[in-house]
Every structure is written in structure tokens, then in C-alpha cells.
């Protein structure tokens, strides 16, 4: 039985293979980065760069689908929150043979179902994400779905960055745990060490 507060890491898919693939696609970078939040980090994750390769997306998602099936979970629908969950949500739905829909933010920033997507009371849902970082947005999606009467079975993600602190009250299937340190720029040890900071997707900048 899965402890709902723990991440279920795959024994089917070799995590080190996935890590190598992510690095080869520049989807997982180690170094010194300035994130869009303004924080600095030793790690940069951009799963879209991995998922742009359909054959990689299909293989990794197959491992998640296998975990879900091995756990005996039978969802009625997969929900992949936009943007990060759209591609993997589609692929997971395809492999599980169920519909795949997505949530998105409305003009007020509220996560919602649009485009005529609906959830019927009692429908069993699996949420699909590329990466779960804090768990906060996944819980937000779960809350919206539950408000419509959905039963949230689990979340499935390629990468788990929660460090087991996602605060999720349902199981989390993930293929690769990634530990990343983030720092305020003024207290960043990498800056203090004179390591040039990189804004991902651009050239290195001078160290602060
Ligand atoms: Zn720094």
C-alpha cells in the first residue's frame, strides 16, 4: 500500500537513464542559474525540452503508466494542468486509454476547466505534471477537481522536486527525484564563490 505522503519512485524505469536523457536534451542543467522568479539555483529543469521528443515522452510516460497500473489505479480521465502537464497528460491518457483534458488559469489567475471540459461527480482522476516542485499548484488543481466531485487518485510526474515535502494527500508517482538548492541572490553561495550566473537559455553573465 502506498503511503500517500511518499513519492513512489519507479523500479521499472531506470532513473539514471532518464537523468542522462534529460541532461542530453538540456532539460536538466547543473550549474548556477537565475530563475524567472529571481532566485538563484544550482539546478535548472525545463521538461518541455525533453518532452518535445515524442519517443522520449512516450517511453518515460510508459513507465509512469506501468506504475499506475501496478498500483491498481483505474482513472476515468487524466488532467494535465497547462502548460507543463499538457504534453505528458495527453500521452498518459493515450497510454491508459482514457480521455485527457487540462486545467488552465483564467484571466484572474484562478485554475479552472475551460473549453467545455467537465468532470462528472465520482469520476476518478489522475493529475499529470512534468515536474512537481512545491506541490502547491498540484494541490490547487486537486482542489478545483474535487470541488466538481472528482476523486483524485494520484499525481504522476516525470520529476519530483518536493523532497518529500509536497504536502500532497494522494500518492505521487514520479520517475526521478531531483534535489535543487535555491538561494536569494544576496545570500547565494555560488555568487559568493564567483561562479558566473546563467539565465537559462542565454549566455553566462558576470558573477555578482
Ligand atoms: Zn547566485
UniProtKB/TrEMBL annotation:
EC number(s) per entry: 2.4.2.10
Spans traversing the lipid bilayer: none
Residues where orotate binds: 133, 161
Entry-linked InterPro entries: OPRT (IPR023031), Orotate_PRibTrfase_bac (IPR006273), PRTase-like (IPR029057), PRTase_dom (IPR000836)
Requisite cofactors: Mg(2+)
Classification via CDD domains: PRTases_typeI
Domain of life: Bacteria
One Pfam match: Pribosyltran
Residues that, per the record, bind 5-phospho-alpha-D-ribose 1-diphosphate: 129-137
Biological or metabolic pathway of the protein: Pyrimidine metabolism; UMP biosynthesis via de novo pathway; UMP from orotate: step 1/2
Residues annotated as domain Phosphoribosyltransferase: 52-166
One GO MF term attached to the UniProt entry: glycosyltransferase activity
Keywords attached to this entry: Glycosyltransferase, Magnesium, Pyrimidine biosynthesis, Transferase
Record field: catalytic activity: orotidine 5'-phosphate + diphosphate = orotate + 5-phospho-alpha-D-ribose 1-diphosphate
Subunit note: Homodimer.
Primary role: Catalyzes the transfer of a ribosyl phosphate group from 5-phosphoribose 1-diphosphate to orotate, leading to the formation of orotidine monophosphate (OMP).
Family: Belongs to the purine/pyrimidine phosphoribosyltransferase family. PyrE subfamily.
Name under which the protein is recorded: Orotate phosphoribosyltransferase
Organism: Hymenobacter frigidus
Amino acid at each position: 500500500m502506498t503511503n500517500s505522503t511518499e513519492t513512489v519512485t519507479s523500479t521499472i524505469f531506470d532513473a539514471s537513464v532518464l537523468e542522462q536523457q534529460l541532461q542530453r536534451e538540456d532539460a536538466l542543467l547543473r550549474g548556477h542559474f537565475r530563475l524567472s522568479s529571481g532566485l538563484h539555483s544550482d539546478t535548472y529543469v525545463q521538461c518541455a525540452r525533453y518532452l518535445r521528443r515524442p519517443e522520449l515522452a512516450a517511453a518515460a510516460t510508459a513507465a509512469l503508466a506501468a506504475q499506475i497500473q501496478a498500483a491498481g489505479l483505474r482513472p476515468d480521465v487524466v488532467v494535465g494542468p497547462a502548460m507543463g502537464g499538457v504534453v505528458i497528460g495527453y500521452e498518459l491518457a493515450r497510454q491508459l486509454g482514457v480521455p485527457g483534458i487540462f486545467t488552465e488559469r483564467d484571466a484572474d489567475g484562478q485554475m479552472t476547466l475551460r473549453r467545455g471540459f467537465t468532470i462528472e461527480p465520482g469520476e476518478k482522476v489522475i493529475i499529470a505534471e512534468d515536474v512537481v516542485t512545491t506541490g502547491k499548484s498540484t494541490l490547487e488543481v486537486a482542489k478545483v477537481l474535487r470541488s466538481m466531485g472528482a476523486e483524485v487518485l494520484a499525481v504522476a510526474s516525470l520529476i519530483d522536486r518536493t523532497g518529500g515535502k509536497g504536502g500532497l494527500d494522494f500518492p505521487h508517482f514520479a520517475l526521478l527525484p531531483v534535489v535543487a538548492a535555491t538561494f536569494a541572490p544576496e545570500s547565494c553561495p555560488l555568487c559568493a564563490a564567483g561562479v558566473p550566473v546563467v539565465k537559462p537559455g542565454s549566455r553566462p553573465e558576470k558573477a555578482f
